[in-house]
Amino acid sequence: GESVGLHLPTLSVQEGDNSIINCAYSNSASDYFIWYKQESGKGPQFIIDIRSNMDKRQGQRVTVLLNKTVKHLSLQIAATQPGDSAVYFCAENGYGGSQGNLIFGKGTKLSVKP
Amino acid sequence: DSGVTQTPKHLITATGQRVTLRCSPRSGDLSVYWYQQSLDQGLQFLIQYYNGEERAKGNILERFSAQQFPDLHSELNLSSLELGDSALYFCASSPQPTSVETQYFGPGTRLLVL
Fold first, then answer.
1. Which candidate, B51, B44, B56, B35, places its Cα nearest to that of B99?
2. Which residues in chain A touch residue B66, judged by CB atoms under 8 angstroms apart?
3. Containing H/E element for A1?
4. pLDDT 10s digits, A29-65
5. What integer is the mean pLDDT of B54-82?
6. B17-54 b/e with 16+ CB inside 10 Å = b?
7. CB contact under 8 A, B104 and A46
8. Residue B96 has what pLDDT?
């Protein structure tokens, strides 16, 4: 599969279990955060986003938690399925809205065992 | 399918050569972003265009340039290629240039410089 980074953190879970992927962001001026999923040979796919005026947001089977005090973001995936196997990236906007680009974390590889 | 298209999917070339990567944003999106994904650097922002004008620059080498055309498609030109330029190049798009909007990524162009 696609490998990003020589020392990519890996999370291995059993099918049906819940997964929690963590991310520490760097810029306290960031006010928008996104989680992306990247499958082998594909581009990053949007999962869920959250703005800094929220601390929790839920989607379908996914929840993002934001702790601005410690600059920490997490992605929770409920009832993890084999199709969830991928590399997950958190991204922050970094500049409080003045520029459009995203700053990406190094990624976490999620492996789901059937 | 994100709606962002990129061509070519794969490109193999030699050192010293020049290549052009092409991106068509999602229908209605005015802002285009280029990112480079390499094994040791992860996803790095290169450059952003909005409605034909350069909006923001990241870690883009002087050998690289981009433009956005009136029909909003964008091209990334890479010249005097070096082995280290081998990477995945992604284009993303969003409706507006601000950083509080989701960016949708294309499938990428895999560049191999021999």
1. B56
2. none
3. none
4. 888 899 999 998 899 999 999 999 999 999 999 999 9
5. 95
6. eebebebbbbeebbbbbbbbbbeeebbbbbbbbbeeee
7. yes
8. 79
Q: Which residues from A are below 8 Å from B when comparing CB atoms?
A: 3-6, 31-32, 34, 36, 42-46, 49, 51, 89, 91, 93-107
Residue of B nearest to A51 (CA): B100
Q: Are B67 and B100 in contact (CB under 8 A)?
A: no
**Which residue's structure tokens are 């092409």?**
B22
Cβ of A101 and B33 within 8 Å? yes
* Chain B residues contacting A via beta carbons under 8 Å: 2, 4, 31, 33, 35, 37, 39-40, 42-45, 48, 50, 55-56, 58, 90, 92, 94, 97-108
Q: Measure the CA–CA gap between A11 and A111, rounded to whole angstroms.
A: 6
